[in-house]
Design goal:
It contains 14 helices and 2 strands, in the order αααααααββααααααα. The protein is mainly alpha-helical. It has one domain (13-308): Mitochondrial carrier domain (Mitochondrial carrier fold, Alpha/alpha barrel). The longest helix has 31 residues, at 111-141. The protein is globular and about 55 Å long. It starts with a helix and ends with a helix.
Length: 315
């Protein structure tokens, strides 16, 4: 049986193994930190309701209003997005890395290679999966008890979505393809440096781990957590801009519409204060450490299980 299993694995293309390993890593990590992700989105978008309540007050509010499942609202859309996103992200990172090395064999070496490959792979993954990220944010944004949802799908004149398909359908009807990609510009501006820095820090830290500890789970968790923490710190304001653009309803809003990444960032700072650009950052620090750590660790572990050859062998 073991020999048969190994034979099957040997016939799976390399890119498919990397795609599978990345998808499983992303889905597992995202589910672990889903409650923190929900809180972070609410801090970023619902200023008066949650920022004034603080972390513990927000937890109590969600628990009282929506129950335990409220902490996982939008997680279905999140996992539906993160599996293809993470799969494409990790797989295209490996592919870009190999392509760059083939094109510039004597130039692109070391951490610069990881920075470039990580940035390009992050952009590619975002473009393919962005509508699902938008839907996840809209679902996580709404605060409503199921008993208060009326037959028209409205609560207090605010659109309420019943699930992923309902949200996707209504968003498309309201804005078409452009509506499904609202906020994609700050996402791309943010993902290029974040994805690049994340892989850069992770690979650079792994290189500095003593040989005896390179296969240690704890070493991988540490490298992954620090990489995610440092990468996210530099790009967080762009994420806040993206979230506010995603949940904005221009037709019903009396405030100036958020258009353009830099203009929106300035507008948010002027009307809501510059601190708003860092709303939810403390929660994000708590979330990104286990998320990045688990993601990188599961990915490396799955690569070993799927018998993916080392980069030295492939390169």
């Amino acid at each position: 049986m073991a020999a048969s299993s190994e034979s099957i694995l040997d016939h799976i293309p390399l890119f498919a193994k990397e795609l599978l390993a990345g998808g499983l890593a992303g889905g597992f990590a995202k589910t672990v930190v889903a409650p923190l992700e929900r809180l972070k989105i609410l801090f970023q978008t619902r200023r008066t309701e949650f920022r004034s309540a603080g972390l513990s007050g927000s937890v109590r509010r969600i628990a009282k209003t929506e129950g335990l499942l409220g902490f996982y609202r939008g997680n279905g859309a999140s996992v539906a997005r993160i599996i293809p996103y993470a799969g494409l992200h990790f797989m295209s990172y490996e592919e870009y890395r190999r392509l760059i090395m083939q094109a510039f064999p004597n130039v692109w070496k070391g951490p610069t290679l990881d920075l470039m490959a990580g940035s390009l792979s992050g952009g590619a993954a975002v473009l393919f999966t962005y509508p699902l990220d938008l839907i996840r944010t809209k679902l996580a944004y709404q605060i409503v008890s199921p008993t208060k949802l009326n037959i028209s799908g409205m609560v207090n004149n605010e659109q309420v979505y019943r699930g992923i398909r309902d949200c996707l359908s209504k968003t498309y009807k309201e804005g078409g393809i452009r509506g499904l990609y609202r906020g994609v510009a700050p996402t791309l501006f943010g993902i290029f440096p974040y994805a690049g820095l994340k892989f850069y820090f992770y690979e650079e830290m792994k290189r500095r781990v003593p040989e005896d500890y390179k296969k240690s789970i704890m070493a991988k968790l540490t490298c992954g957590s620090v990489a995610g923490l440092l990468g996210q710190t530099f790009t967080y304001p762009l994420e806040v801009v993206r979230r506010q653009m995603q949940v904005q309803n221009p037709a019903a809003s009396e405030e100036a519409e958020l258009k353009g990444t830099m203009r929106s960032m300035v507008l948010i700072a002027q009307k809501q204060g510059w601190k708003t650009l860092f709303s939810g950052l403390s929660i994000n620090y708590i979330k990104v450490v286990p998320s990045a750590a688990i993601g990188f660790t599961v990915y490396d572990t799955m690569k070993s299980y799927l018998r993916v050859p080392s980069r030295d062998e492939v390169d």
